[in-house]
Amino acid sequence: MGDNNEEIGKNPKIDSQSEKFEILEKLNSQEQKFDEFAKKLQSIEESVSKIPKFDDDEKKTMMKFEKQLESLEKTMLLNNQNKKELKSEKRFALKHVFKNVTSLEEGGLCISEEEEHFNVKW
Fold this sequence. Notes:
60% helix, mainly alpha
């Protein structure tokens, strides 16, 4: 048996049908894989060819818009930070001059004219 293996290794011809069949199967398998890769590559090439190409003017316009967008985003962020830092506060003072204080009764009700401050009546 050892001599037979040595003879097959030395002999360029393949002796058995099963070895021929096995080699054909491997070749077919490799060919199928190659075909699959070729189809995938062709599909990718078709997809890439559909991507629109920009000319120089379009690129400049896109860059300009991107810069403007970045600037607006920065401005919005700064405004939001400033709003958080600032605490709005509205103040006013109500004043009323009482006349005839001697005629007022203790526990009695005193009503003055309405005043409006910041769209609220006081």
